[in-house]
Amino acid sequence: MDFRFSEKEEALRAEVRQFCQKENLESFPCEIEDEGYGFGGWSRAFTRKLGEKGWLGITWPKEYGGLGRSVMERFVAAEELAYHRAPQYGHLFNDAVGAGIVAHGTQEQKSEFLPKMARGEIFWSTGLSEPGAGSDLLNTATRAVKNGDDYILNGQKIWPTGAHLAEWSLILARTDPDAPKARGLSTFLVDVRSPGVTVNPIIDMAGAKSFNEIFLEDVRVPKRHLLGQENRGLPLVFECLEGDRFWGRCLRHAGSWRDLEDLVQYVNEAKYDGRSLKEDRVLQDTLAEIAVELEVCRMLSYKAVWLLNKGSSISWESSVVKVFADELGQRMANVGLQVLGPQVQLRDNSKWASLRRRFMFLYNFNRGLSLAGGTSEIQRNTIALRGLGLPRS
Amino acid sequence: MDFSFTEEQEMLRKIARDFLSTECPKDLVRKIVKDEKGYTPELWGKMAELGWMGLVIPEKYGGIEGSFLDVAVLLEEMGRAALPGPFFPTLIGSLAILEVGSEEQKKGLLPKIAQGKLVLTLAVSEPDVGYELNALQCQATADGKEYSVDGTKLFVEYAHLADLVLCAARSKDNSGQQGITLFLVDAKHPNLTVIPIDAIAGDKQFQVTLNRVRIPQGSILGEVHKGGEYLQKLLQVATVAKCAEMTGGAQQVLDMTVDYVKQRVQFDHPIGSLQAIQHHCANMLIDLEGMKYVTYLAAWKVNEGLPFGKEAAVAKVWTSEAYRRISDLAHQCHGAIGFCEDHDLPLYSKRAKASEFAFGDARFQRQLVAREIGL
Ligand SMILES: Cc1cc2nc3c(=O)[nH]c(=O)nc-3n(C[C@H](O)[C@H](O)[C@H](O)COP(=O)(O)OP(=O)(O)OC[C@H]3O[C@@H](n4cnc5c(N)ncnc54)[C@H](O)[C@@H]3O)c2cc1C
Ligand SMILES: Cc1cc2nc3c(=O)[nH]c(=O)nc-3n(C[C@H](O)[C@H](O)[C@H](O)COP(=O)(O)OP(=O)(O)OC[C@H]3O[C@@H](n4cnc5c(N)ncnc54)[C@H](O)[C@@H]3O)c2cc1C
């Protein structure tokens, strides 16, 4: 057992830290202000900066614009970016698609997409969910019919994050309506600027323009943009989502630790009803509890990334990370608002007003995280079936 | 980063698990728990033969010279087996002697401990004091070079079996942690009385009263007046050790529950196929995963000689509450059968509660965490 990071990993951490300190992180324009994890928002300009460093495709092969470095190094870099609230969201959510192309793409697809993705020149969304297929992807109704050298796609996708900012989307569609439900689905790399595609942003309850609906009307997708084998789309998607679940959540501890530090500073400085907040034993306990949970969260992520780095599957471990991180995010946002209390709300010029706005946003946005990428219920099903070997009903 | 145990540790785990499952079956545990002795000399002797009492003791004192992570592995298995007896306090006592004992004390005591011939226990808490060392009242009065100790200690585990009681007493009037001295008190001293305390899990806890117990100079452990700081650290090490034991117990509770819900049929299905039960089990696994890694992190830091105060407190807060939640859900999944005294589950769920109190409950430990994060 050894919980140290290697010298190489520490060197990269130091490099990323320096980079964060040198770049004026707050000066980058964000297309999505924050995304609820507790670290920075979505910024095309900053993502390109990461691309210049090679950090977007950090684990990808060098010939496709990557750095060929380890999963653990990617994690260390991401952890450091999260702590500094870098607007690195694009870095993360390219992942399901990037991982899919690396693992299942043709040579041609790899050459066509990976280098551009690694430079932050093109962005992706994942178009899996539909109105009738949320948790139950088997119910996917979007159709793809072969026509000469193309497939013709018709249907509707809903909730893809960032689709209004992305050029491309990974679309799950039914290619064989007669096969058993799980066997007739395929995945396509779809240029959302193609004729027949309409992307409509949906405003979420936190007021952010983060997700969308996509309508597909006789959209032509060339055969060379079929990812993986025809009718084998579902296992591919599940495999990609395993990593996506992890990468989307594994930074909770790092981002939220920063928020906890802010809350501690507030409690140490602020007064309420003439009393210093830091004398309040209940507040101390509440924040200590959050610190404990963030530490647990950190160790759960470390365990999963260690497995991933060894090349092992994290089928249920990633679900553990996801459930824990998402529910902790919700608890923490609630605690933040309780601590900051009503008085900060009343004084917009208070130096703490922005902290409160931040927690109000987190409070609202975090409601979505235990849904996005598979609900907590679905994660618990996975943990029970795969992690504990319980029988299917 | 490496979450794996070494081959030797895996072997130790296997030997311990096999040994305890044959030599310490649950029927025996139930018997021992009800019996006032709280251990059997046969089992103790066999454990000594395996070298367990000397696991942390250097070879030159007759031990095996294992690491603290080895200890964690062994304690996990002991927790899994719900092993009763004075192993735990003896281990903590031997760690104290190793750290601050004189060469003479080490030579005299450690080989006997390693052979299983000497049982130790720790006496810190007092009627008005939990683990806040600042508040200790037990008095040590200098009498020439010797000391005379007066006071009452609570929750002294297995004091009735112990040969030596490691007792913390105030040797100087200064407030705070300053002026505390550690004494190795002969448990059979005529001026020392031992009264059993009725404890939730049938674990053997005692009130120990010292009435002018004279301590010869050779029985002072470490430097006079300087025991406070070391005791603080010893209690933190004990906390981590307790977390390892609790983790093993929780693992057994989960395993037991998963086995049960796979075979228990209601409404024509194994109840383990029902989502309500599956989600209970998933929640148990999430809690247990957390217990493991925060405990391993703390144990690893102890092992590496790195500062581990925060990690120990974090681990104890989490394991205390997680183990209780896991036991609660296990009872819920078992239905009425798990409510019976003869069932294995209560052996664990009661211990979960007892362990929660050991070395400071979550409330106490959260205060340490609060200080660590700058509050
Ligand atoms: C912020 C956000 C971002 C998102 N980003 C994307 C994206 O980029 N791409 C994309 O394709 N989708 C995205 N989604 C959609 C997300 O994947 C779905 O919302 C999610 O899978 C749940 O589907 P649903 O909303 O249709 O709910 P439903 O499936 O209708 O679920 C409703 C409730 O029923 C429960 N339920 C359903 N089935 C079961 C079951 N078998 N067992 C127990 N309980 C069950 C659910 O847990 C939930 O509580 C995003 C969603 C959010 C909120
Ligand atoms: C203190 C006490 C007093 C009692 N007194 C009486 C009495 O006076 N008379 C009497 O007849 N009985 C009595 N009982 C028995 C009691 O009614 C049963 O324990 C209870 O009905 C549950 O049955 P079980 O113990 O066989 O558990 P099981 O039915 O095996 O249930 C085990 C677990 O599976 C869950 N489960 C089972 N089926 C489902 C399902 N369909 N969906 C979701 N979860 C499910 C349960 O909720 C439970 O968590 C008593 C029990 C106790 C503990």
Provide the descriptors you would attach to this structure in a database record:
heterodimer, A: 393 residues, alpha+beta, four-stranded mixed beta sheet, four-stranded antiparallel beta sheet, 12 helices, 48% helix, B: 375 residues, 51% helix, 15% strand, globular, binds flavin-adenine dinucleotide
Please render the helix and strand layout as text.
The complex is a heterodimer of chains A (393) and B (375).
Chain A: H1 7-22, H2 44-53, H3 71-83, H4 89-93, H5 95-104, H6 107-119, E1 124-127, E2 143-147, E3 150-161, E4 168-174, E5 185-191, E6 197-203, E7 209-222, E8 226-227, H7 233-247, H8 252-269, E9 271-272, E10 275-276, H9 281-309, H10 317-346, H11 353-369, H12 376-387
Helix pairs in contact in A: 1-3, 3-8, 5-7, 7-10, 8-9, 8-10, 9-10, 10-11, 10-12
Chain B: H1 7-23, H2 26-34, H3 41-49, H4 68-81, H5 87-100, H6 103-114, E1 120-123, E2 139-143, E3 146-157, E4 164-170, E5 180-186, E6 192-197, E7 205-215, E8 220-221, H7 227-263, E9 265-266, E10 269-270, H8 275-304, H9 309-334, H10 345-357, H11 362-372
Parallel strand pairs in B: 1-4
Antiparallel strand pairs in B: 2-3, 3-7, 4-5, 5-8, 6-7, 9-10
Helix pairs in contact in B: 1-4, 4-7, 5-6, 5-7, 7-8, 7-9, 7-10, 8-9, 9-10, 9-11
